[in-house]
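User: Hey, quick favor. My workstation is busy. Could you predict this chain's structure for me?
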Amino acid sequence: MTSYEREKRASQVSTKGLGTMAQRGSADMSAPRPTLGERPQLRALPRGPGGSPGMPSPSPTSARLPSLDILKFADEDFKAEKYVHNVLTQSTEEGVRGFHQSLIDARDAAAVDLQRNVYKNYNEFVLISKEISKLESDMLTLRSLLSDLKDINANLQTEETTAEKVTVELVAADEDESATQKAAPALSGLAKQSEEQTRRQQMEALYETVEGLQKVLPEWRNRYLVRDGSHARFAEVNPANYKTVQNVHFYLLSDTLLVTTKKKNIISGKSRMVLDKCWSLADVAVVDMKDSIEVSNAFKVMRHPDMFIYRSESLEEKRSFLGAFKRFTDELMLQKRQAVESAKARQKLAIPAADPEPFSPTRSDTGDRDTEKRSGRPTKDDLTANDIKWLMELPDELDVLIAHRDFDHAVSLIEQARHTLSKANAETPRVSVIRSSVEERTNRLAQLVSLDLANPVASKTQVQMNIDKLLRLGMGDQARDFFLTARTAIIRHRIRLIRFDGDVAVYISDLAEIVFRLIRSTCDWYGGSFRDTTMASGFMKWVNQELQNFGTIFRRQVFDSKQNFSVIADCLQHTLHHCKQLRDLGLDITFVLDDAFHDDIVKSIKDHSKQCENAIVAAVEADKFAAIKPDSQFLVGREDEFADITANVSQSVYELYSVFMEFGADVSVLMSISLYSKIVNCLTGFFATYIRKLVEVFGGDWIYRQRSTILVDATFVVDDLLPKVAGQLAHRFERPIPELEDMREKLNHSITAMQTKFITQTREKLLKDKYNFPLVDYSNNGGILDTAKPSEHIMRLIDELNTLQGALDPTLPRKSILTSIVDGIFTFMNDPSCWQNARGPRRLGFQGVQQLILDIHFFLRICEPLVSEETNSNANIVCEKGLRTFFSQNKELKAALKTGDWYDKRVDDVMALISSEFPHLISIT
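Assistant: No problem, here it is.
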């Protein structure tokens, strides 16, 4: 800002503030600048030459400093340029700087003074506002009373006419009306009858729809529905805090304004329309309200002494209702006015007319008026001779200006011509010819300006200047259409220039950059050119059209060409990235793109999830279920990628983890609440597919270590991987994921079923291949040595259990699994089929029964950590059954059986010799 501009701005200080300053005196230039909230202390300046306040008198050696006369700023004829020229003509640079500082101090002092006055008068302003609001209500009441009084006076004047003349008039009117009706076509009568029937049906439907209307507003034949408000919802707001009270609907009748609201029946759950307010149109006034921070799209309904505020969901709904109400009330006022004039006319017909004045040839004005009335067109327009001459020469001048493309001057002349023509109080033939000629040149000029507006290489300044010309010509809609059409052509041209090298993601990135950058620049240019807010809807329609065109190209290049989901995700990410530049202008269109691509994205996610599930199935089928160790060659160079996998799992788990990582990276850009259900279903499907496939392959011919790995895989996926995915998804959507929690519970049941199946299969295999108790021969009737050892069958069973214990992964519940297997073995040994066969009871000899007891004692000792109370009880029952069977088959014993101490000693001796052969069983705690 130059010093001249600062001085000019300082000269525009409020008169009130300057007057106060003048009373206090001029500010001292040497005083410090006032701080915020501090009232500046002004000191009177020394009087300069002539007695006016000014700068201190210069010393003989210094130059004269300019003086600051604050009183001159309050003068109505004050001219800043002249004042500055007079004061600073012979001033030095130091004097100019001092004068400038004086102006700044004066400005600050005026600002502080004005701020103090505002604070001081705030309460009075509030009181005056309340008084104005009350006065507005009183004026409406007065208007209603005056209208009623006017109607009463008209009726009284009509009744004063004589009954005879009124009767004659009514009869004549009836005869005329009857003749007119007879002469009218039958089709007009049918149309009127159909209209009346339609109105009657509408009112019947309204009485059935609105509950409580029949009690408040009785039926009347001449009442009909003007505007149905069932589809337009408004909200009643509290005038004190502008909070929503309830949602309402407005029904405009021919004489009444109805306000209804919907209420829901608690029992039936159905909604019904209930009458809330019922006002006569003569008693209410509807006043529009300006938008504010607290409320927008609002209007007031005033009925003395009450005042209600309502707002609509959109500006179009409010304008539609206010326009319908105004049009109908205006028609009612016009009908009332016509009725009053008709009554006055009838009254004049009833009164004898006075004798007309005899015709006088000297009354030329009367003759002129009669001639004007007979011709049907006015003959006088009250334009001066100079105006007529200038207007007649204007078309030729406009033609010259248009030919020389001097559009600015031409627009100024057209504006001046319109202003001059507006002064004409009558549309004479001369005015009509001039107006037509000017409008013809206006249209020609508008066409040329529109061509310049459509120039694709025009700069922002040129575009705004051309739009301004069209706005001055009164062609705002045409300017908007030409401008937006030109911008559309530019976007289409730029799109055609994009090169496609086969990379769809790069092409979509370039496409989004061009489209959204041009939309951004268009929004900037449009806002700077069209200040009228009513034109914002046209711009939004244009933006929507451009987004539809972008969506068509995007869909053709991405979705219709069956691109991989990773490519689709990249394209969507590029689109959203370039779309963010519109948010700086307050134009967020992300939701529009979400709606446009929602169905295509859902279908793509579905196809991609199907491919992922097929990959998961293939990974499980190809897996050999060998645990991958941390130092495995498979993990070389990929340690960071699989850092979250800490268990000894097989390769299929790593491939499942990769599927989750790729899927998450692809859909991360699509993480919106509208796609929540689809994404969660895909993730739960991945987990379910993997566990279901593990259950299928678990029944195959696997060794213990492979089965152990399968169980570890399933446990890790359900107990570790699934919670991590659920936590990340909950953080992204900012809500818990109950679907994954339910899936985890179902999958835990599947893992439990796998463990049960593993226990059952292992027990059956051990009883069949290692210790087939029904087929083990315990019928030897010889003696048992003091050096006897457990049988070969029980040793093979123990060795197999030791192998199983070593094969199971430490993360699995090994002790629980082996305990269940041991419980199952002894439960099976108590089965009657083990003690009875087709040939009779099982044979047990003297040596055999003692060997059986020794085998059971040794098994219980070496597998002691795996022996439960149930197993111990079953083992005692087996021994007891063996002894009972032996005694029943050998009633006369020649030698006594070994005692419990002997069995304990033999078990201790054997344990000392061979316990080291079963390290895995011994290490169980």
